[in-house]
Write a structure and sequence with these properties.
This protein is of the alpha/beta class. It is 39% helix and 15% strand. The protein has 17 helices and 14 strands. Keywords: Signal.
Length: 466
């Protein structure tokens, strides 16, 4: 469970190519054009013979098929089915992100076989709802706006896909970015944990000067979503895309704000203040807990990973703090998260929309999501509840960590991804590797990356702005 959550951001890079093939260019669809009317279906009996992983509680009720890989999802499905007489969730696949997206892409090409409801990461959604090939249903026509106030503003923007009119999913979880740090290391060397990036650099140099053999942290060239979060925290709006304006994309990955962030990390890497290890490798997993890193700047779901991982250095003392900032007025960023979307192949679209909106839609469901699945909620009632905020985490010395993390989730403003995000991610990884490991000039390398992404977008038929 922990490993699956930890791998989400990097797995995404590999699987987006599969989704991109289903999208086509904005002016030339890869399949038949989908208009809003053709996305609405009304066959309440189509799933009567569907084979479910779960035991359907009320077999005479209408079934809605769902693909999802959340941990403890079966418990959540049982809760929904026990509390609904008109609909029953038929959980038909638990394939995780890469395999699920590949299968979904196959069903799009075949024009059959997709589930009614599917779990999708926010960064993937634009690739299934771009141009004229919208394979996700706009839920606004099914009353989704009535539940908008239940969710954080940033997560809601993530499922609006850059627009203000459509809603293409219901948020479930997010990954607020915070700083995990080794209190025992900072105490031993009498260095103050940093609150700004200038302090971070200074603390890293002090630790090194005082004999700490590790690094204050790690900058990962392949950590695509994390790197976007770093840029976002400095106010850089790298990508722009709206499902309401599908012919246009914005790309601004060579702005002064992005260059400042990358040059900062390049300087620290050159001086051996930070490591430049790729994420989601055995070596990276080991270094997270063996004392090699004094801090880990990461998403909230690292909590579950640290709680369950082996090899944690004996005597280590862990704490959580807000991530260092460039500007105290704009500190809250996110990495990862997903929601429930309705596909254009849903057999009874209105019923599927109800499942997407209500599956995580009560207190008991949110308790399962947080306590059993280990998800970080977008549900504002949960984020502000005393029980959630006051919960102590033994791994972190009984620190009330949600008092640190929850405000970041609440403060996150949303992010926009491209409908060809896989290509952008791959090219960014190549560029950052060359900058950090080969000493390439950060400014000119990012200028080249800007040109590469812009040229690619135009080749796909998009109009490009910065």
């Amino acid at each position: 469970m922990k490993t699956a959550r930890l791998m989400g951001a990097s797995v995404l890079v590999a699987v987006m190519a599969l989704a991109a093939g289903a999208c086509g260019s904005p002016g030339s669809p890869s399949g038949s054009s989908n208009n809003e009317a053709s996305q609405v279906h009304n066959d309440a009996k189509a799933n009567d013979t569907a084979k479910c992983r779960n035991t359907v509680k009320k077999p005479n009720a209408e079934k809605v098929t769902v693909w999802a890989w959340y941990p403890a999802f079966g418990k959540l499905v049982d809760h929904f089915n026990e509390t609904h007489d008109d609909l029953q969730v038929c959980w038909t696949s638990a394939d995780q992100s890469a395999k699920a997206y590949s299968r979904f892409n196959t069903t799009i090409k075949a024009k059959s076989g997709a589930p009614d409801v599917i779990q999708l990461e926010y960064a993937v959604m634009p690739q299934f709802a771009s141009g004229v090939e919208k394979h996700l249903v706009d839920l606004s026509k099914f009353g989704v706006d009535k539940i908008r106030s239940n969710y954080t503003a940033g997560a809601w923007k993530d499922v609006q896909l850059g627009g203000s009119k459509g809603v293409y999913g219901v948020p479930v979880d997010v990954g607020p970015v915070v700083m995990y740090y080794r209190k025992d290391i900072f105490d031993k060397y009498q260095v103050k944990p940093p609150t700004t990036w200038d302090e971070y650099e200074q603390a890293g140099r002090e630790l090194k000067q005082k004999g700490y053999a590790g690094h204050i942290g790690n900058w990962q060239p392949n950590g695509t979503l994390f790197n976007y979060a770093y840029y976002d925290q400095n106010g850089a709006k790298v990508f722009k895309y709206s499902a309401n304006d599908p012919e246009n994309v914005g790309i601004n990955i060579n702005s002064d704000k992005v260059k400042k962030v990358v040059s900062f990390w390049q300087k620290l890497a050159k001086d051996d203040i930070v490591a430049t290890d790729d994420t989601d490798t055995a070596e990276w997993n080991k270094k997270n807990v063996d004392g090699s890193y004094a801090t880990i700047i990461h998403a909230s779901w690292l909590v579950g990973y640290l709680n369950g991982v082996s090899g944690v250095q004996e005597g280590s003392q862990w704490q959580i703090a807000k991530a260092p900032v460039w500007d105290q007025s704009d500190p809250d960023v996110n990495c990862g998260g997903s929601g429930m979307a309705v596909t254009d192949q849903a057999k009874h679209t209105e019923a599927a929309a109800k499942v997407a909106m209500e599956l995580f839609g009560d207190d008991a469901a949110q308790d399962i999501a947080v306590n059993d699945s280990g998800l970080y909620p977008t549900w504002t009632k949960k984020l502000s509840s005393a029980a959630f905020l006051d919960r102590q985490e033994p791994f972190f010395g009984n620190q009330k960590i949600n008092k640190i993390i929850a405000p970041v989730a609440q403060g996150y403003k949303g992010y926009q991804f491209l409908p060809f995000q896989t290509y952008a991610n791959d090219e960014q990884t190549k560029t950052l590797s060359a900058i950090l490991r080969d000493g390439k000039n950060a400014s000119t390398s990012l200028d080249s990356l800007q040109q590469t992404l812009s040229d690619y977008a135009k080749q796909q038929g998009f109009k490009v702005s910065q």
